[in-house]
Structure formats: C-alpha cells, structure tokens
Amino acid sequence: MAYLVFKDGTTFEGKEFGEWSKSSAQLKEQEVVFNTSMSGYQEMVTDLSYAGQILVLTQPLIGNYGWHHEENEADKTRLQGLIVRELSEGEGSLHGEGSLEDYCQQHGVQGLKGVDTRALTRYLRQFGTLPGLLVQTQEAGIEYWANSQRKIEDKSEHWVYRSTVKEAYEIPGSGHLIAVLDFGVKRNIIRNLQKREFRIMVFPARSTAEEILRHRPSGLVLSNGPGDPEELSEGIAMVRKLYDKLPVLGICLGHQLLALAAGGKTYKLPYGHRGGNHPVIDIRSGKATMTSQNHGYAVEEASLTGSGFEVTLRNLNDGTVEGMEHLTYPVLSVQFHPEGAPGPEENAEIFDHFKDIVLRSSTQKGRR
Ligand SMILES: NC(=O)CC[C@H](N)C(=O)O
C-alpha cells in the first residue's frame, strides 16, 4: 500500500507503481492537480508543463492503449507523480512499444493506482490546488507535515530551467524562420509549425533577446511551460525586449509571459483548467470552440488596461481570459493549447493565422 497525504491529514490510499526508490530524506510535497481528459495520458505524462506536479486523472481506466514513443510530447518527463483509478497494462494496444507503467518506472514517476480519484478530485475542487505528499506509510506522511514548519527554503531552479533544451537547435524547412522559445515546449507545437513549412530554431529559455534577433527570425513562438509565470523575471524581461520587434504567438505560459511583459498581472486559479473540453468563445465572431487546456494561472483581465493588448477569447465556463491580441503589433496569444486536439483539430487555425501575420509582416518589411 502507498498513500497521498495532505497537510490537513486527509489521506488517499492506493497501490504503488512506477519508481518508488526515493529515500525518506528526499520526500517532498508537490502540487496535486487533476485532468478530466478521457484520453491522452501519454501526452500528459510527457507534457513538461506538468513539471513538479502530481497529476490525478479522472478517467477511471488509464494505460489501456499502451505507449507509443512517437507520441511523446518531449524526450523526458518532469512529472513527479501520477494517480489513477485503474491501471491497465495496455495489452490490447496495436504496435504498442511498452506500457505506461514501464515508462513511469524508467523515468522516475511515482505512481499510485486503485485510488478513489473521484473523491480526490472533489477534495481538490473544494480546497483548491494543494501540495500533497506520496509516501509508503501513513506515519511518514504525518511526520513530514508535522515537521514542515521547520523546512528550509526551497532553492531549486524554476521548473522551466529544468525542462528547457540545453542548446539551441534547428529544424530545416522551406519557409520563413521561426524562433521558438522553449520553456518546456510540446512537440506538437513544433509539428504544427513544420506542417506550415516554417524553418525552426528552438532556443533555450535562458537565451537573450539579442541572441535570438541575431538569427533574424520572421516570427517568434513563446511556448508552454511549467510553474508560476510571475517567478520568471528573466523570461518576462526578455519577452519585453522582443514583442514589439517581430510577429509573436504565445501559447499558455507564453501567453502569460506576454501579458506580464506588457505590464499585466497573472493570478492563481482555484483548481486550474486541465482537460479536453473547455469551451472558449471568440468575442469578435461569436464562434465557440472546444479546447484542450492545462494551466493553473490566468491573466487578470483588468490588468491589461493600457497594456496595448485586447482580450479576444474568453472561457465560457468561468469568463477567464483565453486569448489576446496586440492593438499595434502583430502579436497574439492563447491560454489554451491549439496543438492539443480534443477530437476535431478545430483550433489548429491559430497556427494558420500566425502564418498569415508572419507572411504579411515580412512582405511589408520587404517593401519598406
Ligand atoms: N501549459 C502551460 O504552459 C501552463 C502554464 C503555467 N505553468 C500554468 O500552470 O498556468
């Protein structure tokens, strides 16, 4: 048996899978979040935006279609824990290259199965996103939280820097050059840019604005990524130097950094948006789409006054900001994941829109 223990003593019981060899000295609480998607466990486990978190999946049967390396969103995971109701070995999968369980074991993800994920999700919805601890005995959990006041300050690097690529790399293409700032970029963002024939250069999160501009890109994509956007002061300063100089598309963390760079604010949502059926409305056209989402923070709408950005997309469940465009510069951003397709690929047109503005702005430059 193993347990997820919260500070208030609430405990959820399950059975361990994956990698559990951490010593008691390495015990550390992690933010517990839930995702309501019915499929896509592989994309979620390898989405670096989940770095430093324990992910609860509300879909009760997980692992049933196996593991296909091709579909990983990154070549690593930074997910700390995975909690499921029933874990399937995935024996029914065609051409499977292993199982979710194998992947968790090989990549250091602590798993807990057989958990009452419905009760756990209701708990998180009631009290908000909370830190929880995965332990092999309930006593270890109680002792950890009892001593938690004496804990020394966490000096580890922001998860973005533990997720980004080490060195810049290029992906050939026949079209304009797009710089991608990798805060933990999902492969499907890159794939969507490749589909539109762009040449791509992926830059580590600590690159400087000058390093990026030296390559004379025709557009910039600010990627998704983990953690609190306000804690990324270097990233915010770098985005501030760039967004008035070339067409920009911000996705999720990238969207939040754009808002912060322009003088806006972000805040923490009570329990986040994570799932494949979040309805979003385009304020101008009145058209609504279903989106894939994974974020715990959001842009404060009122803080955008005077920033030069206008809100273009809004969440139909809670009215939060889902997208914005700059009034003067060719800059747009979305809080959701246009590369994540919850069924139909209805939001991929965001990438087409970005391609249009890159082409338009490079022809204008050519004429000048
Ligand atoms: N997927 C993302 O880019 C997430 C952005 C940010 N870490 C948040 O949770 O809000």
From TrEMBL:
Binding sites annotated in the UniProt record for L-glutamine: S49, G225, G227, L253, Q256, N294, G296, Y297
Functional summary from the UniProt entry: Small subunit of the glutamine-dependent carbamoyl phosphate synthetase (CPSase). CPSase catalyzes the formation of carbamoyl phosphate from the ammonia moiety of glutamine, carbonate, and phosphate donated by ATP, constituting the first step of 2 biosynthetic pathways, one leading to arginine and/or urea and the other to pyrimidine nucleotides. The small subunit (glutamine amidotransferase) binds and cleaves glutamine to supply the large subunit with the substrate ammonia.
Gene this protein is translated from: carA
Catalytic activity, EC: 6.3.5.5
Region (CPSase): 1-176
Domain Carbamoyl-phosphate synthase small subunit N-terminal: 1-135
Metabolic or biological pathway: Pyrimidine metabolism; UMP biosynthesis via de novo pathway; (S)-dihydroorotate from bicarbonate: step 1/3; Amino-acid biosynthesis; L-arginine biosynthesis; carbamoyl phosphate from bicarbonate: step 1/1
PANTHER family listed in its UniProt record: CARBAMOYL-PHOSPHATE SYNTHASE SMALL CHAIN, MULTIFUNCTIONAL TRYPTOPHAN BIOSYNTHESIS PROTEIN-RELATED
Pfam families: CPSase_sm_chain, GATase
Class of this enzyme: ligase
Single GO term (MF): carbamoyl-phosphate synthase (glutamine-hydrolyzing) activity
Active site: residue positions: C252, H337, E339
HAMAP family per record: CPSase_S_chain
SMART domains: CPSase_sm_chain
Family to which this protein belongs: Belongs to the CarA family.
Protein name per UniProt: Carbamoyl phosphate synthase small chain
Catalysis performed (reactions): L-glutamine + H2O = L-glutamate + NH4(+); hydrogencarbonate + L-glutamine + 2 ATP + H2O = carbamoyl phosphate + L-glutamate + 2 ADP + phosphate + 2 H(+)
Assembly behavior: Composed of two chains; the small (or glutamine) chain promotes the hydrolysis of glutamine to ammonia, which is used by the large (or ammonia) chain to synthesize carbamoyl phosphate. Tetramer of heterodimers (alpha,beta)4.
Keywords from the named record: Amino-acid biosynthesis, Arginine biosynthesis, ATP-binding, Glutamine amidotransferase, Ligase, Nucleotide-binding, Pyrimidine biosynthesis
